[in-house]
Amino acid sequence: MKSEKRKIVQAMAGGVLLYAIIQTMHSALARNINKEVLLTLLQIGSWCTVAFAFAVFVQGRLLVSRRMTRERTGLSALFFGLFLLDFAYTLSLSGSPNRSVISADAGSWLLPVSRLTATGGLFLLYSRRKAGAVHKEAVPAFVRASAGAAAAIALCLLLAVQEVAWGNGVKLGLHTLALLAAAPAILAILRSDSMEPGSLGAMLPRSLFLLGSGQLFLLRSTGEQDPNLLVGLLLGMAGYAAILVGVFRKLDEEEPKREREEIEAQLNYLVYHDELTGLANRRKLLQRLSYMIGLHQKNEIEGFSALAILNINHFKNINDSLGHQMGDRLLQLVAERLGTSLVLGEELFSMGGDEFALLMMDCPNLNECTDRAQELRRLFDKPLELDAGEYHISLSVGLAIYPGDGETAEQLVQSADTAVHHAKEQGKECTRFTPSMQMKASEKLKMENDLRRALERNEFYLLYQPQVRLETQEIVGMEALLRWNHPKRGLVSPVEFIPVAEESGLIVPIGEWVLQTACLQNKEWQKAGYKPICVSVNLSMRQFLQPNLAGKIGRYLEEIELDPKFVDLEITESMTLDREMAFDQLQRLKALGVGISIDDFGTGYSSLHYLKNMPIDRLKIDRSFVSEVMEDSNNAAIVSTITSMAHHLKLKVTAEGVENEEQMNFLNEQQCHEAQGYLFSRPIPAEEFEASFLQRNLMPLPL
Questions:
Q1: Residue 216 CA to chain centroid, in angstroms?
Q2: Nearest CA to 621 among 631, 635, 609?
C-alpha cells in the first residue's frame, strides 16, 4: 500500500514538473512544431483514447458476466458513454472525414463534457467500489449511459450551432470541474489503508491523477494548433490505459484468486464438517485434540480433559425399519439435542454414521468427566419426535481421559472408540478405557531390533498395484508398496511396523531400499521390452528432510540409466508445513525430472494459494473419501471439489481405494484422470504383475 501511495506522489510531482516545462517552452513549441505533424499526433492520440475506452467497456462486460457488482457494472457503462463522447469528439478534429457532421465548435464542447464525465464518474465509482452484487442493474446502467452520451452529444451540437456568448466561460467551467472532481479521490486514496498493489482500486487514483493533469493542459489550450491540447489528450489517454490495466489484472489475477478462495473455503468446510448434521467431523476433532494436548503440555490446563464417544444403540434396526430418510432425521435430532446441552469448555463432533464425540476440556476431577457423560446419555430418556411418531433411543458412552489414556490425538480417539465398543458388548452405559490393548514397551523395543536386522536378512519385499487411466482403461503406472515377512511372526502389517521405523529413524534406510528396488525393477522391465510406465514410491518425512535427497536419487537413477520421468515420488500434505524447506526440496527433485504427487490429499490442510505455487504434478485422493463416495454425499462432494480444484490448478488426479464399478463411474463423471484399487487389482508381487499386466502390452525390442 505504501508503495502505491509513493508512486502516486511521485507521479504528482512528475506531472507538476511536466506542466512547468511545457508552459515554459510553450511559445517555442508553438512556433517550431510542424502543424501537420501536430494534427496527425492529435488524431492518433484521440483515436487511441477511443480504442482504450472501448476496450475498458468490453473487458468490463467480461467482469460483469463473472460477478455482477455496482462497481463493475458502472465501470463498463461509464466507459461505454465515454467511448461515444470521445468518438464524437474525434470526428470533429481537422482532417476527419465526418467533420461536416460534427464541427470543431461542437468538439470544443464535447471534450470538456467527456473529461468531466470521466473524472466525475470515476470519483463516484471509487467512493462506492465496495458495494455488493446487484445483477439486475446491468441493463439499465447501459441504457442510461447510452442515453446520457447521446443527449450530451446532441446538446453539444446544438450549442455549437447557437454560438452563445457565454459558451467559452461554460467550457472553461466544465474543464475546471473535471479537474476539481479528480482531486478529492486522489486525496482519499492517499489516506486509505485498503489499496492493494496492481488492483483496480489502485489504478483508479492513477487514472484520476492522469486525467486531472490533462485538465491543467486543456485549461491552457487555445485550439488544435496548441501543443497543450495534444499533451492534455495524451494524458487523458494514459488515464484510460491505467483503468484498462487494472481491469485486465482483475480478470487475470483478482477473479481467479477469488475463485480459488471460494473453492478453498468450500473444500475446508466439507473436509472438516459433517454434511448431514453440520457438526465438525473426525478430522476437526483430531485438530482440537492436538490443540488440547498442547495446552496440557504448556500447563495451561491444570485439570483433566476427556473425550467421550457416544454411540446410538440399535441404530441399524431403526434405520431398517423407518428408512434412511427418517434415520438421517433422527441423527439430526440427536445432534440438536446434544448441541443445545453443551456447557462452557465442551465441543461436539460427528464421527460419521451413528457416533458422536464430545470433547470436555479442563474437568476438575475424573468423577466430573464421568458424571457429565452420564448426564448427556440421560438426555435421551425423553423420546425424539419424528414425523412417524415418538421414538425412544439410548446411547452407549466410551471415555478416554487425558492425561492417561493416550499421548496423541489418534490414540485418544482409538481409546475412546475401544471403550464404547466394550460398553456395547458388555451392555454397559458408560465405560472408561483401560490400556490392556496397548503395545507394551518391551514389544515395541523388540520390533525395533527386528527391523534393524530385516534389511540385512532380506525380509522386506515389494508388491505392486497398477494405476489405470480411467478414460482408456490402460495401465499407466504402478505404486510400489512395502511388506515385511518376519521369520517368526510371519507377515507384519505396515500399520504396525512403519510407525516404529519412523520413530527410530530406520525408515530412512528402509525407504532408500524401497526406492532403489522399485526403480531397478522398473528398469529391468523396460530392458525386457515392456511398454515403459511410471513407478510411484512413497517418501517418509525423515527421507524428505534430507538435504542431499535429490542428489542421492539423481545419482542412483543415472547409475541404473532409468529416465526420471518414469519415477513418481509421493509425499503427504504434512511434509509441506515448513513451506520454504518443502518448496526448495521439491524444486530440487523436480529439477531431476521426476514427478511429484501429494498422497492422501484432503486428510490434512493445504492452502490452495500455496498449493498452486508448489512444484507438484498430481493429487491423490485418499481412499477414506473414495470408499464411501456412493453412500456418503459429503465424501462425494469432497471428491468432486478436489477434482475440480485440481483441474483448475492444472494438476492430474488419482483416486485411491476404488473397489467397484459404481465408484469408478462416479470418478469418470468427475473427470478424474487415474485410479487404483481392488477393482483393478490388489497389490501383487513383481512376477504376477509382469504376467498379469505388462505381458499384455509387450513391445518389440529396438533393432
A1: 46
A2: 635
C-beta atoms surrounding 613 within 10 Å: 12
Q: At CA 469, angle to CA 465 and CA 475, rounded to 5?
A: 45
| Cβ atoms of residues 225 and 38 within 8 Å | yes
CA-CA distance, 489 to 90, in Å (whole number)?
91
User: Where a domain ends, among 375, 403, 438?
Assistant: 438
Residue 339 lies in a domain: yes
In a shared domain, residues 330 and 429: yes
pLDDT, one tens digit per residue, over 169-197 is: 666 666 666 666 666 656 655 555 445 54
Is there a contact between 680 and 468 (Cβ–Cβ < 8 Å)?
yes
Give the C-alpha separation, 701 to 528, whole Å. 8
Based on the domain organization, do 385 and 454 belong to the same domain? Answer: no
- Owner of C-alpha cell 516545462: 21
What's the pLDDT at 441?
Answer: 46
Total domains, the chain: 3
Q: What is the pLDDT of residue 530?
A: 92
**What's the pLDDT at 267?**
79
Q: Classify residue 331 as exposed, middle or buried by CB count within 10 Å of its CB (0-12, 13-18, 19+).
A: buried
Contact 659, 677 (CB under 8 A): yes
Whether 24 and 148 map to the same domain: the answer is: yes
The verdict on 513 and 649 lying in the same domain is: yes
Residue 186 counted as domain residue: yes
Does a cis peptide bond (omega within 30 degrees of 0) precede residue 403?
A: yes
Q: Per the structure block, which three cell numbers stand in for 595? A: 514427478
Q: Could you tell me if 308 and 426 lie in one domain?
A: yes
**Residue 593 has what pLDDT?**
95
Largest CA distance in the chain: 112
Indicate which CATH number applies to the domain containing 466. 3.20.20.450
DSSP 238-294: HHHHHHHHHHHHIIIIIHHHHHHHHHHHHHHHHHHB-TTT--B-HHHHHHHHHHHHH
Q: Which long-range contacts (CB under 8 A, 24 or more apart) does 379-386 make?
A: 379/337, 379/338, 379/341, 380/334, 380/337, 384/330, 384/333, 384/334, 384/337, 385/333, 386/322, 386/326, 386/329, 386/330, 386/333
| Cβ contact 206:242 at 8 Å | yes
DSSP string over 652-699: EEEE----SHHHHHHHHHTT--EE-STTT---B-HHHHHHHTGGGGB-
C-alpha cell at 459: 525380509
**Which pLDDT value is given to residue 688?**
94
pLDDT at 163: 57
Domain span at 683: 442-697
Closest CA to 121 of 91, 144, 93: 144
Task: Give the C-alpha distances (Å, rounded to integers) separating 231 from 95, 127, 318, 654.
Answer: 19, 28, 82, 59
Residues of the chain with pLDDT under 70: 1-16, 19, 23, 26-31, 60-72, 95-101, 103, 107, 125-203, 247-257, 317, 320-321, 388, 425, 435-442, 577-578, 602-610, 697-703
pLDDT in tens, 100-140: 567 677 767 777 777 777 777 777 766 654 444 444 455 56
How far are the Cα atoms of 44, 48, 75, 663 from residue 54, in angstroms, in the given order?
A: 15, 10, 12, 50
- Residue 596 near residue 569 (C-beta atoms within 8 A): yes
